[in-house]
Amino acid sequence: MSILWGCVAVLCTGWPFIGILFAPLGVHMVLSVYHNAIAKKEGNTFVSGLIAIVILALHGVVIIAVIQGLVMGIDYYFYNKWTSPTLNILLYNAIGGSGDELYGIEPASYYIRNLFLNMSQAWPLALMAPVVLLVRGILSTEARKAIASQESGMGTVLLSQVAIWLLVLFSRPHKEERFMYPIYPLLAFAAALSVSAALQVVGLCFGASGTSSSSSVFTLLRRGSMLILVALSAALFSARVASNHTNYGGYMKLWETATTHIASRHPPVTTSSVDSS
Predict the structure, then answer these.
(1) How is the protein disposed in the membrane (predicted)?
(2) pLDDT > 90: percent of the chain
């Protein structure tokens, strides 16, 4: 299913560059399939793992062929010409064509300002995630080592997706706010992962004494911090909406005035039906 929806996202949206986000997930999937095949210990472990990877690759090839065929068939129906939008956009932006510099260039600080504007809380918390996950892994007890390791593994995949996307975008001279949209959910998830891991680190510190008072303090701290984060998010969201309405609400006021003016010149006509019986 991951391969299926990944191919749909890349081939059906008309913006194949989103495939960069699936690279870390693809590596994780290949390694997982390989290690799972080895764990079964059926004959030669290396051969078993290699066969599992080949089968996975064949699944991907079949799915890509089917989806790409459907997309090209639909395009042929409307344009009466065999073409591949995915190939065309890659040829124009990556291999030939005038390049995206034609539409303007911005400094690297453009995305930094944009992230602090649109993801004012999630962006700093997401940056803290690698350090917090590392500290949690060091402080975790032996009983929680496996769980912490598994969560850190998925966190590594998630953060790798964000890092690769930012690296590509920052390296391009042409920058747009919409290019950041694909990683907004990833940044929010990374921020949540950072907060969760940080609270676990605090819990490990308070739980070291093993007293009921330390446990109560940690519970109060956890609930209080979550309430503060939610309240702060709501306040910032409300402030952003109010700012947009105040500074960019001219067109809304214009239409309100125009509607009132038109209504005053042409009063509404009301009709009533009278029962003649």
Answers:
(1) Multi-pass membrane protein
(2) 9
